Amino acid sequence: MDIRFFDAHCHLQLDAYKEDREAIVEQMRARGIGAIVVGVDYQTSFAAVELAREHKHLYASIGLHPNHTDEVFDQARYRALVQDPNVVAVGECGLDFFRPEKLDESVKAAQKELFRAQMALAAEADKPLIIHARPSRGTFDAYDDLIALVREAQAAHGAAVRGDVHFFVGAPEQARELAALGFTISFTAVITFARDYDAAIRGVPLASILAETDAPYVAPASRRSARNDPLAVEEVAAKIADIRGEDPEEVRTALVANTRLLFSLPA
């Protein structure tokens, strides 16, 4: 299969696709769209692996989302799952200071402990991370803490700590700092209707950017308020090229190459 686009982050295993999952997967295959199917807990991680086993253009990431600190991170179960050849990353993991009803130091400490455990697992398995970072309203606090934790983990584990910061909503300088630490930054279809992230997209090298959909969430401008799907990655890639003022075909090719390189995907 000739891969023309890669959706670096989607959730095709969720019930949102219960009725037409196979039809969408077939549309993706026909249009040359590969994808990383991302888990947010053990159940959805296992489902992502099962889906990736069935389709050669799909790959899996396994992890525990920072909003699930009430769930025990069972190292043994995740360690067994990460060995599956269809698993190419650890995550969705990271920091979310936006959703908790009461954000205090104990909540932040629990999220950081969970994130450290998953960074250690990723380093042990030599897999990149897929990182979720969402700051509290009106700030970029989660990104500041994320950068500090990544530096700490790289001091302990070296270059094995690498990955993608998905659905980036931070400041341009934070994007540049993460790129300097060897991380890619991925953008969703929100860039098709919001201009908040243009400076970040223009401010890092093209080699540090991935395209994603985070489907079923955040559909592009062409179908706002509808369920999203990985087919929208075509619009995301085109918009990245438009914002950067670069040739769409060169950008498309680079985004696919960036994804293959980070996740060690076969050519």
Tell me the number of helical segments per DSSP (H or I, 4 or more residues long).
Answer: 9
**Largest sheet data:** 8 strands, parallel
The N- to C-terminal Cα distance equals 10 Å
Which structural class fits the helix and strand makeup? alpha/beta
- Topology as a string of helices (H) and strands (E): EHEHEHEHEHEHEHEHH
**Unreliable spans:** none
Strand content: 15-25%
CATH fold name: TIM Barrel
**Given this structure, which CATH class is correct?**
Alpha Beta
Strand order of the largest sheet: 1-2-3-4-5-6-7-8
Shape: globular
Radius of gyration: 17 Å
CATH architectural label: Alpha-Beta Barrel
Mean pLDDT: 97
Number of domains: 1
In short:
The chain has one domain: TIM Barrel (Alpha-Beta Barrel), CATH 3.20.20.140. It contains nine helices and eight strands. The chain has helices at residues 21-31, 42-54, 75-82, 105-125, 141-157, 172-180, 198-203, 233-244, 248-263, and strands at residues 5-10, 33-38, 58-62, 87-96, 129-134, 163-166, 183-187, 209-211.
